[in-house]
Give the backbone structure.
Amino acid sequence: MKALTTKERNRVIQWRNHGRTPAYIARNLGRPVDEIEAMLEAIQRADKPKATPRSCMSCHNEFMSEGPHHRMCDACRRASAAIPPAMLAIGTGCRVTQAKTRG
């Protein structure tokens, strides 16, 4: 089993993104279907974000975060989504703006 070249790997990804089957991809590259399927599975595993423990910014309980965008646990996220935007307190602006206006 010869390793795929970068060009072949990019072609496999492109064809898969366009809905081509592993059989179609293997036939066009002259490779075994199981080799293409294994490569596609490896790509999917690599694309999944790794969950890491993080402290919730609301309740401070630890939860498994999927990345820097995931700062609140599911319970706090559901609770904050239930609050209508009109009920949220409106701040006085950012600190940078306040510091510039004072001085």
